[in-house]
C-alpha cells in the first residue's frame, strides 16, 4: 500500500521514507492538504497530514469520495481537523500524543533569551562590523519570576530550566503537576500570574475555551517590561491586541513561534510575494519581537519520535488495533 503524506519538509522526507521502509510505500508532498489539493489524495486509503493542513468539512468530504479512510496526523495538536465530520464519515483519525517535550521547552527558552539579550539585533550589527552596545542591554533571569501557563510535560520541562536559572515559579493549569510543585512552583489564578511574572510562557492546547487566552485584558494585566513567549498555538494570543500594546511601547520582548493565521504562510517560501496579512506584517517590524516559523518541535529527536508514532498508528490501523493516539476510532 502507498500512503500519501502532505506538508513534508525536506529534512523530514528521508526520515519518513526510512521509517515506513519494509511496511508501506510513502509518497511525500511538500504542499499542504486543503480544498485545492485534496483531489490529489484520490485512491489513497491513508493520508498523512501535518498541523498546518486544513481538514475541514469540504476537505474531508473530498477525501472520503476519493477513498481515504484514515488520517494519520504528524503532530500532537489536532485543532485543524473537524473530528465530528470525520466520525460522521466513518474515517479513522490518529495523532501523535507524545514526543520530546524538551524540544519545545528548550526553544521557548531560546526565544526568551534571544529577545532579552537582543541577539538578533546584535548579530545583524556585527555582520556590518558595528560593535556598539547601544540598545543591547538585557537583564538577569536569576531571581525573577517565570509564569508558566500550562504545566504538562512541556511546561514542566520549561519550569525545570527556569529553576536552573534560579527563578521564582508561578503556574496556572486545571490541575497541579506534583513535579512542578517539588520545584517550588506556586499555582495562582491567571490574572495574578500575569501581573507578577517577568517571563510568561504558554504551553496549553488550543481549544474553544483557550482561544485568545491572552486577550486585550490579559495583555494589559502584564508588566510593561514583561517577556511573552508562545511556542504552543497561535490562537492562544489575540495578535491584533498584542500589536496594539506593542505600539504603546510595552514589553521587553515577545517571542512567537506560532501565529494564529499561520496556515498558508508558515512552512513555505513567501519571500518574493507581498504579504497580505497586515497584522503579521506589522508584528515583525517591532524591534523587540522575534517571530519564527513553528519550528520549536523541529529537532532530530522530536521529529524521529513523531514519525515512529505515525508509523505505529498506521500499522495499528491496518491490524485493527486501537491505541491512545486514536482520536476517531475505526468503524
UniProtKB/TrEMBL annotation:
Q: Give the SUPFAM superfamilies listed for this entry.
A: Formate/glycerate dehydrogenase catalytic domain-like (SSF52283), NAD(P)-binding Rossmann-fold domains (SSF51735)
One matching Pfam family: 2-Hacid_dh
Q: Which UniProt keywords apply?
A: NAD, Oxidoreductase
D-isomer specific 2-hydroxyacid dehydrogenase NAD-binding domain spans which residues? 110-296
Query: D-isomer specific 2-hydroxyacid dehydrogenase catalytic domain location, by residue?
Result: 8-327
Q: Which domain of life is it from?
A: Bacteria
Family, similarity comment: Belongs to the D-isomer specific 2-hydroxyacid dehydrogenase family.
Protein's UniProt name: 2-hydroxyacid dehydrogenase
